[in-house]
Amino acid sequence: MAQCDECGEHENMPYNCRRCGGTYCSSHRLPESHDCPGLNQWNDPDGVFDSGFDDNVDQSGGSGGIASSLGVNTGAGGPLGYFRGNMTYVFLGLMWLTFLAEVIVLHVLQNAQLFQMLFVLEASNVEYVWTWVTSVFSHSPFGFFHIAGNSIALYFFGPPVERYIGSKKFAALFVVSGMVAGLSQIGTAMALGTAGGGVLGASGAVMAIMGVLTILNPNLRVMLIFPPIPMPIWVLTGGYALLSVIGGLGPVSGGIAHFAHLSGLLIGFAYGKHVKGKRRAPQQLGSGGGFGGRGPGGPGGPGGPGGRF
C-alpha cells in the first residue's frame, strides 16, 4: 500500500505521475491537482511540449529560445525531454564520466599539470573559472571511496528533492551550491593562511540537497550505511555538521573540506526554508525509477588543501 504524496491518503492502487515521478491517490493523480513541478517549474502550462530549457513554446510543439534556434528538439519526444525529472541521474553520469577522464589524464597520460588545470579548484589559479564547475564533478582519482560515497548520497537524496522543486531548479541548486562550496573553502583557507592545495568533489552540492531535505521533513527516516543504523535525517545531517565544525576548527582537517560541507549545508537550509510548504514534503527516499523511467520526459567534496569533499 502506497501513500499519496499530496494528502497522505493510503492507496492500494496508486497513480505515478509521469511528469514528476510522485505517487498520488485518484483525487490528486492529475498534475494540476498536485501542483506538479513538471507544469510549474518547466514553463509549460500544459506540461506537454516544453522541456524547461527554453522560455517559450511555439505552435508546432517545439520550444523557442536558443535551443530551438540551433535546431535542437527540446520537446517531450526529443533527446532533452529525458532530462526532465532525471537530472539526478544526469549528474551521476557526469560525475563518473569526469572520474574516467581524470584517470586517463593522471594515470594514462601521466600529466599531473593538466589534471590540476582541468579538474582542481586552486587558490593559486582561481581565475580558471572552468574549474569552478569541473571541480564539482571531479573526485579523487586514487580510489573509489570518494566518488562512491557522494554517488550513493546523491542517488538516494537527490530524487525526492528534484521531484519537490523541479528538475530545472534542482540543477541550479546542485551546480551553484557546489561552486559556492568550493570557493568558500578556498576563501576560508586563504583567510586562515592555509591555502596551498586544491579542492574537488560533489560533497558541497550533496550537503545542500541533504539540507533541503532536512528542512522539508526533518523526521524522514534514513539509514546510516556503516554501520546500518536507522535514524531521522536531522540526526544524520546534524552529525555531519558537527563533524565539519570540529574538523574545520581543529588543527588537522584530514584532507576534507569541512568549510565546503558547511557552506553547502547552509545553502540547503536557506533554500529549504524558501520552498517549504509549497507542496507535501517527501515522505520516503527513493531513486524515482531510474533514468528515463518515472521521469516526466522519459518513455516509461571539494577538499581542503590537497584534499577533497
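[next item in queue]
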Amino acid sequence: MAEAISIIEAKGLRPLSVIQPQYHMLDRYIEDEIMDLCERYGIGIVPFSPLAQGLLTGKYRKSEPIPQDSRATLKYNQVNAMLTDDNLEKVEALLQIAHELGISLPVLSLA
C-alpha cells in the first residue's frame, strides 16, 4: 500500500479516501501492514467480511456438516478456504467463551 501511495503522490492523482480489506478476528493482517499508513494519510477503513463469511457466526462447526443453504455449498466462494481444522477449532473455543460471557459468537467476534 505504501507503494500505491507513493505512485499516487508522484503522479498527482486523487488520493485514496477509503479502503475495504478483509478484517476479522481470525485475519488481522491489516493491523501490521495497513492501519498505520491509513492513519498517517487519513484513509478510512471499512472492514470487509467482519464475520469471516459466516465462520464467526457459528454457522460452520467442526463436528457438523456444512448447512445445505450455505454459500460453502457453492462452487465458487471464499468461505471454503477458511473452513480449516485450525479455524474450526478456534470457532469452538470462541463459542465457549461467548457462552461463558452470555453473548452470541457474532457479538463477541465484532467486539
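[queue empty]
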